[in-house]
Each structure stands twice: as C-alpha cells, then as structure tokens.
Amino acid sequence: MSQDLPIFCHLTTGGPETNLQLYSLYRAWTDWQKFKENSPDSPGKVRERCAFIVNTLALSLAQLLGQNVPTKGERVDGPQDLLRRFLEDPALDKAAVERISRGADELWPLYNAIHHFGKTANRTKYEKVSTLDAPKTEALVKLAIEVWDLVIQRARQQGADLDEFESIVEILDDYGLFEGYQDYDAR
Questions:
Q1: Residue 70 above 70 pLDDT?
Q2: In angstroms, rounded to a whole number, what is the distance separating the alpha carbons of residues 91 and 71?
Q3: What residue ranges do the domains of the chain occupy?
Q4: pTM of the predicted model, to two decimals?
C-alpha cells in the first residue's frame, strides 16, 4: 500500500472517539440480516431497504479508506479513487483485486445515484436505483465484507496491532456486546 493512503480501522468504540466506519458497516450488516429474515412484500419497500443498506455499506468503505480524514485544505479523493489506489498495492491477492474491482464498478455508481438522489435533468439515477434488488444487495454486502477483510489483512501485514479474527463478520456479530453499546432498535 502506498504511503499516502492512510487506512483508519480500529475495532472498538471505547474512548472519546467513535468508529464511524465500523458503526456504518454494522448498521448495514444488521439491516441486511433483518431484511433476510423478513423481507418486505412491496417492491418499493425492498428497493428502499436495499438502497439504505448499499448506501451505508459504501459510506463505511469511504470512511475506512480515508475519505473522512482531515486534510490541509486539499480536496479528498472520492471513495472509488481511494479504493482504486488501495487495490494497486502489489502485495494484495490478484484474484481478490479483480473481484473487488468488478464489484466496485457496480457499487460506486449505485452509491452515487442513491447518495445524490433528487431532481435531475434526466432519469439516469432513478433508473440506476430501480435496478437494485435483494440479489444485487447481497453481492454488494459480500463485496464490502471482502474489502474490509482485505484492508484489515493489509494493515496487519504493515504492523497494525489488531485482535485476531478471520473476518470482520465476527466483529459485526459481536458488535452489540461491546461495553456501553445499545442498539437503537433495542431502546
């Protein structure tokens, strides 16, 4: 990984900071689990839930890759550029890079369409969002998990002191157990 790409991943929410990238991923993950257990009947409601999940997944990746890092008056690259730069690291598994690149070609335009939804000169964003369904959302959930796992793996290779786990999914499944955390749905 190049020196100019900071990766910010810490896996607790304790202390004065908050781990927005992990919380965003957690919300997308839990909403996806709830969706799988009880998906809505209405196609509009399916699309609405899937759009929230995809948008929140992409937000977590943007944050993980450094889009929320303060700069000295410089413009911060978009998440697609940050991911592309991360994937240029020669130490990464080539098959994983190819899989993620293909998935990112689907994710970022959808994120852009959902994130910047509103009145447009044409219907391209609406048309993009209208393609969103459960199978596409599931593929993007898997993509986000793979990116997280790859970023964490690379951070470990570079000396980051992280707890031992195989996949970020293990952390997501236990996230609500962290001290002081209470899920909004449980309130």
A1: no
A2: 27
A3: 20-178
A4: 0.81
